[in-house]
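In response to reviewer comment 3 from the previous cycle, which asked for concrete evidence that the modeling workflow produces usable outputs, we include below a single protein chain processed end to end. The sequence was submitted unchanged, and the resulting structure tokens are shown without manual editing.
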Amino acid sequence: MSFPKTLSLLSCTAIVTGGTRGIGKGISMELARRGASVALVYGNPARASDAASTVAEIVALNKDIKAIAICADLRDRESPKRIVEETLRALGTEKIDILVHNAANPETTPTPNVTHEIFDTVMDVGLRAPFFLTQAAQPYMHPGSRIIFISSTSARSPSPGITLPLYAASKAAGESLVRSWAFEFGHSHGITVNAVSVAYVETEAVSVVPAAQLEAYRMASAKITAAAPRPGTPDDIAQIVAFLASDSARWVTGSTVANLTRILVIGVKGVTT
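The workflow returned the following structure tokens.
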């Protein structure tokens, strides 16, 4: 499939955390469809076979690109450096064009029951890993490179029917990083930094949510999602990410693009509704 030049990602190199399933898989496949070689990061060694299958799907989709799966525990402080080094080596490149921070831990433990271990796990995966993976990747990025953070509408308003205090806090902090990095990396390196704020999307990841909470969240989200009275799909989100990764979005930075009625685009200088 061919794309207009400003929407093509031909010859780009991308890293997508949580890239082998759910929203991350959808993003990885769309970036590859548009011409990017992709490193898909996943955390559970037991999913190695599934990761290999996803890589095979991507290569079959576009035989002109390369794709690899990297198993890395994002809680490990050595992982960011290893992910970047393995991406460059395996994909045979010296640059990183697109970095997508998608991995997260949708922890539903209510505040009275949160332990230090639960707190650390959510923040390590959802906030510390994006920070230090960006730090590791930035020397290999260039003017026109993209950093994209997958956020959640829970960062700015409670998720209907579901308890996500730590997850919401990690996403709100991530959006703050996006705004800071947009200035820091924009002027100094010509890199754009944006977030995509996601409402309810039907993926395997939501299976960890208690059934009653999940159904309430599903029904409430369908009522307030602007585009259609249905849950989102990984491809819905992937199309937004692919646009932000493309040259068409070269003048978009420091923004959070959301798919919820009450928040359309949250810019650096305020909120547009």
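Residues 76 and 110 are 25 Å apart (CA to CA). We consider this sufficient to address the reviewer's concern, and the full set will be provided in the supplementary archive.
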